[in-house]
Amino acid sequence: MSAKQATWANRVRGLVLGLALGESLGRGTAPTSGPVRTGVGAQLAAFTIEGVIRASVRVSHRGICHPPSVIWHAYCRWAALQGIEVHEHHRHWSEGSVGWPDGWLADVPLLRERRGSAPATVKALNQPEQGSTSHPATSSRGWHAVARSLPLAALSRTMSADGLADLARDVAALTHGDPLAYNATAAAAVLTGRCLSAGSLAEAAGHDPGPLRSPDVAAVLGRARAVFAQARRTPRRKDQLAQAAPDATAPSALLGATYVAGSCDEPDEAMEALSFAALAPDGSSVAAVTGAILGALYGVEVWPVELLSRLESAWLLDTLARDLVAEVTESPGGSEYAPPHDPFWLERYPGW
Length: 352
Fold this sequence. Notes:
about 350 residues
């Protein structure tokens, strides 16, 4: 199977499921039987996707929207399901007449289970205002900023690289205020967006696509190109992986994943790539981003059915990925001037 044979929809599904599978397998050897447990990064990515869809629905029906704020609302709902306290300024939704948390994710038992810590996200949710690049809520540069934001790459189908970078940066800055975190997140979204349409990893990661509005994001992409070139010269070296990804930060997750993907860039090497990524000092972060990149490049078929069938979040995330594709390409919920062609869309993704 070549990259060109994978449909765009299957690539989006491959991205989302690869992210979750990578996070899980990055913790160590894959279990030979039984469920493959989902991590907190995949949980947060699920709410990013749901928030993006709800933001799109709101734009279609109301004509005005600030997508990062809608995604912030999604993270507040994740916290509510987890039983995590948020700042009193963010509790007003639960005090209204409408049932809250709303939307279909509120009915998914898995999202009520604790699957690891997300300290920067929890700290940000306990600040009076959501974070931004100009008013950071935390000083974190942790890898969850990248992992939970990678599904935004699907918007590259209808959004410019600059627009995607701006959105990814703003979404990351909701909780991770270090510029290294949100610029790496923006670069990762742009790179993964390229993978969704590229014919090869070299095409997506190895070439300068032209100037971006943000020199900081362009600089991170330049570092990724250098790491990719290094991987082509000297692949699969654990010492070089550790040099590219020395810790659990957002830049390390991106650069480590670029080194791994550049070392194992054939479709039949995808599982070897996740195993190699797990050898990084923080395996989950590097493997999660590696899974997203390779899934975006080659499609969902690159991941073994036997493993996906045991990934406990597979149905949830595949449904969200399919719905994201539908929202980007079809707008099932209609608009201010057109009725929905899916009668349940607005109930599942209320855009209030």
